[in-house]
Amino acid sequence: MNATATARSLKRMSRATGELYAAIFLLAPLGFLIGKMPVTDPGDAASTTAALLENETLFRLGMLAEAGVVVIELILAALLYSLFRPVSRSLALGAALTRAAEATIQAVNLILSFVALSAATGAGVYADVPDATRETVVAASMDAYESGVLIWGIPFALHVLFLGLLVVRSGLVPRWIGWLLIAASGGYFLDSLAPMVLPGASGVAEVLVMALAIPAELSFVVWMIVKGVRAERWRELAQGADAPVTDAADSPAASPR
Predict the structure, then answer these.
(1) Around Cβ 137, how many Cβ atoms within 10 Å?
(2) pTM for this predicted structure
């Protein structure tokens, strides 16, 4: 592939990465916040179920948004691996696998929303179940859903850390964006782990992750859409990664005279 074609391909891939990342910024709040907010902490099982039924359409739209996020996350994992593989295959693979793991946990967590919705509406196996039992299932499912969000936040924090390290090492994107991503990964770790080990600090962790993550990820997204990775630097890294490794035993200095 010639230099011009490579530059065009990298530009398209970078823009697609940024645009898909931006799409997550739009879909994630609908799926994880707006769609779930009416039923996240209503106080008891009965009011949880009533809140879900009152906001059923919004809840369903939130589920659809979550499904969209899962698909985008998997595509992003592949795109980011392709873009940063020349920097470090092992680190790029780690970033891809942790992002895919996050998406997988999100997909599994979405099952809990289906369970809550079915129990609340009395669909399927819940048709002949007493109201009190269905309400308990709804509340338990939503509690478990909240725990699932904390769990998928851990591989995502690891992904952001790997991505930040790749950016800092590569020179493909300004290094200051990489340092912002590394700092954001610390916020994500704290946000996921605080409710488990230090519940009283959960509110502070939520504020901290917003303060760190939004500038970091937004900077990365804007750069990828507007500028993209540096094609010349990418080619240098790719050529270095593909260069054959010469065994010391095969070198002239090591050959018997």
Answers:
(1) 19
(2) 0.86
